[in-house]
């Protein structure tokens, strides 16, 4: 009998024995009606795995957003879409989750990760700055912001230097403006990068952060000479 059962399972895919999202979502409704919150969340998680888009529609049309289960369902959808690499949908639901817990550092970090994945780098920078305001020792935020300000500063410095090199015979005023521009850039960009990366090194022995700090030190010498 056991051998026969093994043969049967090998002949049919596991999905044939699993429940459809529609069935699972009907069970979610029943579980909520009977006060079985944990069971409802577990069923909803399974429905996300069965059909994420159907679970999403259920969230938007059937879930009472004032109930305590709403943020739990939003989290399940965010994590499901992240797992299947649908970063646009994952971002949507991490943002939705922030409506319920705006100061939750873990959710903010996840939201920033999705912003980076979706090419929203400026938005990610703003989100990571929110993270640092709530948790100055957040390694991921400090590392991102340090790298962000360094790379932005490098691009700006290259432009300043390229513009100056275009001048065949720069005047003293033009040279002074060039030096002032470099100094202002260091104060507004490189110094921020240095502060964040120094914080990274207090939290984790990052060789990359150390190398970048050495580059910033060289720029500072050039600016101050």
**Any idea of the CATH topology of the domain at 137-225?**
Serine Threonine Protein Phosphatase 5, Tetratricopeptide repeat
Largest sheet: none
Instruction: Determine the oligomeric state from the structure.
Output: single chain
CATH architecture group name of the domain at 137-225: Alpha Horseshoe
What is the tally of beta strands? 0
The general outline is elongated
Content of β-strand: under 5%
Rg measurement, Å:
26 Å
- What top-tier CATH class of the domain at 137-225 fits best? Mainly Alpha
Helicity, as a percent range = over 70%
Helical stretch tally: 11
Considering the protein shown, what is the CATH homologous superfamily of the domain at 137-225?
Answer: Tetratricopeptide repeat domain
Give the SSE order as H and E letters.
Answer: HHHHHHHHHHH
Which structural category fits the helices and strands? mainly alpha
> Roughly how many Å apart are the termini?
86 Å
Describe, in plain words, how this protein is organized in 3D:
Residues 1-21 form the signal peptide. Keywords: Signal. This is Tetratricopeptide repeat protein. InterPro entries: TPR-like_helical_dom_sf. With 225 residues, the protein is mainly α. It has a domain at 137-225: Serine Threonine Protein Phosphatase 5, Tetratricopeptide repeat, CATH 1.25.40. The chain has 11 helices and no strands. Helix 2 packs antiparallel against helix 3, helix 8 packs across helix 9 (139-165) and helix 10 packs antiparallel against helix 11. The termini are far apart.
């Amino acid at each position: 009998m056991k051998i026969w059962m093994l043969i049967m399972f090998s002949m049919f895919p596991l999905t044939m024995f699993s429940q459809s999202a529609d069935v699972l979502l009907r069970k979610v409704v029943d579980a909520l009606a009977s006060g079985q919150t944990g069971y409802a969340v577990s069923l909803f998680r399974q429905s996300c795995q069965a059909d994420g888009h159907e679970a999403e529609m259920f969230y938007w049309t059937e879930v009472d957003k004032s109930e305590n289960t709403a943020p739990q369902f939003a989290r399940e959808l965010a994590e499901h879409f992240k797992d299947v690499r649908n970063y646009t949908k994952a971002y949507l639901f991490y943002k939705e989750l922030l409506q319920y817990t705006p100061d939750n550092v873990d959710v903010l970090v996840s939201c920033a990760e999705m912003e980076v994945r979706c090419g929203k780098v400026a938005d990610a920078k703003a989100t990571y700055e929110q993270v640092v305001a709530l948790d100055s020792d957040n390694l991921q935020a400090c590392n991102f912001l340090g790298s962000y300000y360094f790379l932005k500063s490098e691009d700006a410095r290259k432009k300043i230097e390229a513009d100056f090199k275009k001048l065949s015979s720069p005047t003293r005023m033009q040279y002074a403006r060039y030096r002032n521009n470099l100094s202002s850039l260091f104060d507004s960009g490189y110094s921020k990068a240095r502060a964040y990366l120094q914080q990274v090194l207090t939290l984790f022995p990052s060789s990359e952060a150390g190398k970048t700090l050495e580059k910033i030190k060289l720029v500072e010498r050039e600016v101050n000479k």
